[in-house]
## 1
Amino acid sequence: MATPGTRAEQKRHTRALIVAAGRHAVATRGFSGLVVRELAREAGIVPTAFYRHFESVDALATEIAAGAAEALGELVDDLVAGPASDPVVDWPGRASAAAVRDPQTWSVLARGLVDTAHADHRVLSAAVDSARRRLGITLGRLETLSGADGSAVDIAADLVVVVLLRLLVEVAVGYDARAAVEECTGRLRVILAGAGTDS
C-alpha cells in the first residue's frame, strides 16, 4: 500500500488503521478488547496518537457498532428489495455471500450482541430488532403465510433472524459456506412451514 501524501490523507489513513485494529479487537474479544495501547500497536502508532482521531475508546466502539448495524441494515435491504418468491432458497445464499465478502463485520456483530454490559450493545440490538420487523413484513406478504396470524409471522421473523445470524457468523468464522447455506435453508423451511400451518 502506498504511503498517503497529504496531511489529510495521512490522517484518514491512520484513522482507518485504528478502526481496522478496533474491528479486529471487537471481532475477537468483544468491546472489552478495545485497549488503546494494543490498538496503537496494531495500527503502528504511538498510544497518544489515538486521541487525535477519537475522543475515547467508547467513541471508537460506537463507530464500530454503527458500522456493523449499518451492514445488517444493508443486508436486510438486499433481502427485502427484490421479489423473493422463495426466501427459503434466496436469503441464505445472499447472507452467505455477505459473510464471505466481509467476515469481520459479522464477528463484530455477534461479539457485540453478547457483550450486553457495553453501551453499544443497544445499537446492535436495535439493528437486529429492526431486521426482525422488516423481514416480518416481507414474510407476512408471502402466499404461504397469507393465512397465518400476526403472532405466527412475528415468531417466524424472530426465528428467521436468528437462523440468518447463525449462518452469517458460521460462514464468517470459516465454516463451509455451502453446508451452512444448506442447513440454514432447511431450518427456514421448517420455520415457515410451521408458521403457515398456524392459521
## 2
Amino acid sequence: MTQVLGAVPGGDDTDAKVLDAALRVLARRGTREATMDDIAAEAGVGRTTLFRRYTSKDQLFERALARDIGRILDDLAERFTTVTDPTEQVVIGFITGLRLGDHILFRDADQVRRAELLQALGHGDPSPISLGYKAVRANIAKAQAEGKIPVRDPDAQADALIHLMIGYLAAPSFAVDLTDPVAMERLARAAVAPILTGTI
C-alpha cells in the first residue's frame, strides 16, 4: 500500500488543535449545525485565526477527515511492509476500516448522523474515500503484478471493498457482531478476501 499522507498538507500545532476541534464539533453537531464559531471556541483560537487558515467549515471538515484517513492508511502501509500475503492484508485492512466505527465521529452517532458523516467522507479534494480507494487499488494492482492474486479488474475490486466497508459502517449487521474481532476476521476471510483471491 502506498503512503498517502503526503496528499494531505501538513500543518503546525495550531492546525492540529483546530483539526482535532473540528472533528469533536462535527461529531457533536453534524455538518449542517456546526459553525466556524463552534470550532474556534472548541480549539481555543480566535475567529480571525480560523478564517485565515480555512475558508469554510466544509474545507476544515474535509481537511480533518482526510488527515485522519491518511493516518490510518499510512499505518496500514507500514504494516503491509511485513504482512505481504494479500488475504491477510484484506483481513487487516477490512477490520481496520470497520474500526472506524470507534472513531470519534461514529462512536456515539445515531443512524441519521452516521449517514451524514459517511456522506462527508466523499467530499474534498482529495476526499477521504478517494484516498482509501486509491490506496486499496494500488495495493491490489501491486499484488496482481507480483502474481500473488489472479489478475482481474483492480478498479472494480477496490471499489467493491471500499463500498462493503462503508455499508457495514452505515448500517448494523444482521449476522456479524462488528464489536467482536474474531467475528470481523471470520467475515473478512469468508466474504471479503474472496473478492481478490477469486474463490467466490
